[in-house]
Amino acid sequence: MYFPVGWPKALAVPPEDIGGLHSVLCNRDRVLFAVVTERSLAIWYCRPCVQIVCHCRSEESVRTQGTNQRAAWRPDSTSVAVTTSQGHILFYHLEREVVAGHGANCYNQTRGGRFPSMRSSSSMEYGEGVPSIRMTFVTSVQIIGKIECLVCVRDELLVATGNGMLQRLRWDGVVNGKTGINIASIPFSVDLQHSRASTLDTPGITFTHIEYSGLMGGFAVVLPDGRAGLVNTLAGKVENNSLQGVWAQGLENVTCVAVNNRYRLIAFGCTDGLGVVYTVDDMTGALQVSHRLELSTKDYPDACMACGPVSRLRWSPDGCVLAMAWDRGGMAIWSVYGALLMCTLGADQGLYQESLRLHLFRIKSMCWSMEGYQLWMACETLDRSEVMELPTATSELLQLQFVKSTLTVNPCATNHEHLFLQGEDKLFINTGDLVMKQQWKDANMNRPLRESIAGSNTSSPQKPSRQSNILVGNKQWLVIQIPITYLGSNWPIRYAAIDRTGFCIAVAGRCGLAHYAMFTRKWKLFGNETQEKDMVVTGGLTWWRDFIICACYNLNENRDELRMYPRASNLDNAFAYSCKVPSQILLLNLFRDMLVVFCADCHIALYSIERRDANPTPTCGGPSVVDSSGLSIGFGVMDPSASLTLLQEISLASYIPHAVTVISVTLTSLRTETASSKQTSSRREAESLIVNVAGRLLMLQRDRSTTSGKENGDIRKREKMLPFCAPVVLASCVENMWSSSRSSPDKVHLSEALWLGCGAAGMKVWLPLFPRNDEKRHSFLSKRIMLPFQLNIYPLAVLFEDAVVLGAANDTMKYDFQDCSSPSALDSTPTRLFPFNVVDRTTQVYLHHIVRELLRRNLGSHALQIAKSCRSLPYFSHVLELLLHQVLEEEATASEPIPDPLLPRIVDFIREFPEFLQTIVHCARKTEIALWSYLFASAGNPKDLFEQCLQSGSLETASSYLIILQNLEPAAISRQHATLLLDASLDKGKWELAKDLVRFLRAIGNEDPESPPRTPVNPINAPMYPLPPPPQDGPFPGFAFGSQARPVRSYSMGENLAGVRERGSAIERERERERHHSVQATSTTNKKTTAAPKDIPPRADCGVFMGTLKHLEETAEHFFIDVILQRHARKLLSAGRLRELGSFAAHLNFELIGWLQKERCRAARVDDFVTSLHTLHRDFQWPMPVIALSQVLSRSNSGERSRSSSYEALEVGVNGMTLSDISEGPNRLRPNGMYASPSLRSSMDLLCDELRQEALDSRQFNSNQKGDNGSTAATETSEMSASIVADDSELTLDDSMWNLANLDELEALSQELACRGPPHCETQLRYLLHVMMEAGCLEWAMLISLVLRDSMGVTRVVNTASLTDMPIDVVGRMREGLSYLELWADTECPGYKPFLLVIRGQAEVLTGIVDIQGSPQVTPIPTPESSLTSADFHALGFHGNSSDKEDPESEEQKSVVETDLPQDGGQCALS
Questions:
Q1: Could you tell me the pTM of the whole model?
Q2: Disulfide: which of 18, 512, 1132, 1245 matches 1141 by Cβ 3.0-4.6 Å?
C-alpha cells in the first residue's frame, strides 16, 4: 500500500548542531518538524525542506540542566517542550514573525521567466511560502526524579518520572494539581468487566513509554519489566480514581508502543525483534492479539535476532502502514494487518551484510510527514571498520519518499478497478489494461483518439473482447506529473480518482481540484483562482460517467456540499451542480447511478444521479458521442448537467464507535441468499451496504420480507421504501475489498463474489454456491462460503473474469559507490547504505486457491463449475499445475500422517480435463524424485500414462514421461517406451522430437539395463513446457538444406556415377571395417591373455572382455536405431512422400544418398508414374500445367506459320515460359488440365499435331549441324530457361515493352510465373533431383524433372541410364511410365503434352536401350571417363556384323547412331 521510491534525501543539518541527533517529531498538521540534538532545537518546514529557526543552548545551560533528550508539541503548534538528561523540561514559544523586506515569510516561491503562469493572478507568489517563525525560550521546570517519557494530553503535559509518578503540567510550566498520580496505585486487570483488578505491587514502578489515544480513551503504556497494557480514563479525566489498566496478555519483553486510532490497534515492539499488534474488544474492553509482525525465516533467516530489539514504531497519518526500526540497524514497513511491504534487511538492500558488519546503522527517531509521502528519520552510524580505534558516530537527517495506493484515502469503486498510485507530485498508473481493453490505437494518428475510444466501447457480439489477458503481462507504469501551477499552492495531493475507462484522472490538494485527460494530455484547472481557494475537498472524489463528484467544504458560505463538475466544460462553478449536506462528508462511493455518502454524524445517504444533456454547442465541427459508460467523447461539446436526488438515509451510530473508524462504504448487489446463476446474472440491483469499520466488515441487507413478488413500479421507488436490516459481521482484519458492478453470465461465480484483502492473512473470497439446475435447493445448505487463501503479492486490483490479482511490490537497484572518485561517495553514510527503490507491478493467479479450498470442503461440484467456466483462459493448464504442485508439496513433506489426504481428490479433479496428462508430468518434473512415488500412487502408473499419451497423440507429453520412466524403471523399459514413441513421432512427422528421441536412445544404451539411475537425466533436453515448432514454409513442414554429410554441389555428367555410389556407401563400409577391427582386436587380446596369464592380472582380462561386450552392445543398439530409421525412410519412399523424406533426412542426419543407392531397386522403384506425379504435385504445392484457351484457339484458327517461329515458341514452352500458360480470362482451363468442350479438344489435337511435326523437323535440322554449332536444341533451350529463371527477380517494365510485339511475350511470362510453385518448393525439388541422380534413383529423378519441366534434367536421366550399368527393369519402367504419362496427358492433363512431345526423343532413346540390352549379345557399357567412339557403338549391337567391309545399309545406320550421340564427350543431351 505504501512503496518507497528513489534514494532517501539527506537533509543538511547546520554545523551549530554539535552532537548527535536525538529526536525528530512533527506538529499536529505535520507541516513543521522539531529536530532535537544534544544542544539545540531546530524547526524545519516540510516543503521545501528548509530549516526556519534554531535555538542553541549555552554551555552553562547544558552543564546545569543536561543535554536534550526528547520533545513534545502543543496541539496548536505554539509551544514545544524539551526534556533534558537531568530532569528539566524546557518550554519554548513559537510565533509568526514579520521580517522587514520579506513580510511574514522567510522564503517565497516565485515564477521564473521561462515558465510563465497561465492563470489569471496578479500575485507572483504561488502560495504562502515558508513562514518566518520566532522561537523564544520561556521557562524551565525541574521534575523530581528522572523523566522517563512525556505525552501531550489536550492542553496538558503528562510526564512519567523515575520515582513512579505521573505529573500533569500546563504549557506555561505550572504543575496542574496538588499531587501527582502514583503509577503503582493504578489497578490492572485482564478486561473491564469480568476479571478482578489488582494494583502494581512493585514500589516506584514507572512507565518507560506512553502514548495517548483519544478515540480509545486512554494511554498505551510500557513498564520497565517488559509488561504492557492500556490505561483507560473512565471519566475522561486523568485522576487517581478514574484510571483503569488492562493488560496485554502474553507480553513480557515490550520495548516500545504505537497506537492506531483509525483501526483501533495498539502495536508493541519486543526485545526479540518481533512486533505484536492488539485490538480492543468493544464488549469487554480486553486487549486481544490481532496479528504478529514477524519476518519470514525463509526470506530473512535469523534477521530479527541479528538486528536486536525493536526500537521505534510509527503509524502513518492514515493508519494504513506501520514503520518499524530495530536497535542494531534496519527498518521495515508493514501494512495495517501485517503484510510486509518493504524491509532493508534483504540481500538486495545491502544493509544486513554491510551495515551490520562495518557500520552500525541506527534509526534513533522517525516521523511521518503530511499525507505520509515522506518518512523523516534521525539516523546514526557507528563506523567500526577500524578495529584499533574507537568507533566514530555520524548523525544524519534522512527523508525517504513514498507513493501510496489511492485506496488508502479514497476507496471509491473506480479506484478499485485499476492500479493507481499517488505521490506528492506525481501519479503512477498501470495502463496496460486500459490500452488493450479500449483498443487505444493512436500510433498512426489516422483518426482522433476520441473516436477510437467511442468505437471501442461498442462491443461487437461476433468478436468477444479478450484483451485483459494481455494486461497480465504488461508491467509498465505511466507517470503523470501534476502541474506546478496547481501543486505550488495546493501541496500535498490528498485525493485522487480515476474513471472506469482509465482515461480521466482527478486530483484534489489543499484547495480546489484539477483533472487530466489522457487522450488530450492536458490538465484542466480552475480559471478563477478565487473559486479554487474557496473550496476544500474533505470526503474524497470520484467519477460518474463524464462528471467529477466531490465532497467539499465551502469556505465562502461555511457549509458542506456535494458538487458535480462536467469534464467537457471549463472547470468553473457556473457549470457545476451543488447539493448541500447537513454535516461533513467523510467518504463517498458509487454503484451504477447511485451515490453513497457517509457523513461525520454516522449517517449514510443514498442519492440517485440523473444526467440532463443541454443543446450541443459544436466547437470542432461535429456532435459529441456518449459511450456506454457515459463518457462524452467526440468533436463537439455538449454542456451536460446532472442532478442528485436523496433516496434514503441510514444511521450507523449504534454500530460504530466513531465516524473516523469507518474505512469504506460500498453499495453492492450481493446477498447472503443466492438465486440461480441465470437469475443472478440478469438482476443487478442495490441489495446491501458493506461497511468496513476498523477492519471489521459489516453487511446491511435490504429487508425484503414484507415485499411481495408481484409489486410493480420503479426500482428506485421500491428501494427507497425498503429499509435495511441489522448488520452482520462478514470478516475481520480487512484492509481492502473488491466487488464487481458488472455480472458475467459465463463466470457468474467470480463476478458475484466479494474479495477481501486481509494483510498477512492473505485474501478471502465470499463465494456464492449456486445450485445446479436439477438440484433442489434446501434451506439448510450454505448459500455462500468464505474461502481464505495466501498470496505472495500485496493485492491492489482484482480481475474477476481473468482470475488474476494485480498488485505492486518494492524492488531495489544497487549501485557500487566504491568506484566513485569523490570523497563523499566513499563515506559510510546512511544514504550510501540505502539502495535505489522502484515500484514493480506484480501479478498472481488465484483460481487454483479457490478450487483447492472447495475440494477441501467437499464442494467438488462447485469447483468443477468454476473451473469449466475458466477453461478459455490461456493459463488454465498452469492453474491446474499450481493446484497439484502445492498440494503435493504440502502432503508429501508432512511430518504427521494425514488421515484424509487431498491429493487423490485433486488428481481426480484434474482428470476431468484434457490437460490431465500434461499437468501430471509437468508437476512431477518440477518436484523432487522422492515425491514421485506419492504422486503416482494417486495419478497412476507412469507407463499407463505414457500409453495414454500415445493413444491420444500427445507425443510431446509422452516424451516428458520418458524422463520419469528413466528414473523409476530399468533402462530396458525406458528403451522400449522410447522406441514406441520414436515410431509414433516418425509417423506424425515430429522430426525435432524424433531427433531428441534418437539422442535419448543412444544415451541410455550405455546404462545398466537392470538398475535405474538415482538422479534424473535429461538427454532429450526437452523444455518444461513444449516449445512451439519452428516456423515452416507453407502448410507442410519443410526440410533444412546443408544438414547432410556431403555438401550440395553442382552435378556433372562426366562424373562416374558408379564411383559416386561407392563413395555414398563409404560410411557403411567404414562401419564394417570398424566392427572387423574390433572383433580382431578382441581375439588378439584374448590370445595374448591366454598366452601370458602372469603378465596381465585377471581383473584386467575381465575388464577388457566386459569392454568388448559393452562395445558390441553399443553397436547393436546403434544398429537397432538405424533399422528403425531405415524402416520409416522406406515407408516414406514407398508411398512417394519425398518431401517428408527430405525433412526426415535433414532433421535426423540420415545418410540419404547411401541408403537410396541400396534401395533404388526396391523401395525406390516407381510402378505407377501417374499416381507418383500427382503425389509430387500435391506434396510440393506445385500446380498442374495448363494451356491458355486463347493460345489454343489462335493456333487452331491461324494459318501456316514459319518453322523458325514455331520452333521458338516450342523452345519457350519447353524450358522457360512453357506453352501451357495460364490464362487470366474467363476461358481459363481448370487447374488439372481438363477441358470440357469438343471444340476445344479438336483445337488441342491440331495444336499437338503441329507441335509434334515441328519437333521432328527441328531435330532433323539440328542433326545436320557440325562442330560447335552441333549443340542440341535442348542445350540452348536449357540455357534460355536458366537465364529466364535467374533473371525473374530483375525484370523491369517500361513503356517500350507495352507494344503489340511484346504483349504475347509478357503474357507468356506472367502465365509461366503463375504456373510455377512456391520458390522454396522449387529449391527442395531441385535438391531432391540432385540427390536422386547421385543415388541412381532415376525413376524419381525423371518424375521430378517432369514436375519442374526441366528437359535438361530428363536428358541427364537418360544419359545416366544409357552410360551406366543401370538394371534393365529400371529403364523399362521409365519407358513404360513415359508412355502412360502421354496417354494420361491426352485424356486428363493436356498441359503436359507440349513438354512430353519435346522429350519424346529421350523416350525413344530409352526404348533403344531396352531393345539393345534385351538382345542376347550384350556388352558392358563403358564408363563415362573414356570418350565413346564408333567402335564402342558397333560393339553395342547397332551394326549387322563385324566384317571390315561395310555395306551401304550399315553405313546409313552408323550415321544415324553417330548423329544421335553427343559430340562433346557425353556431356551434351540427346535430342
A1: 0.76
A2: 1132
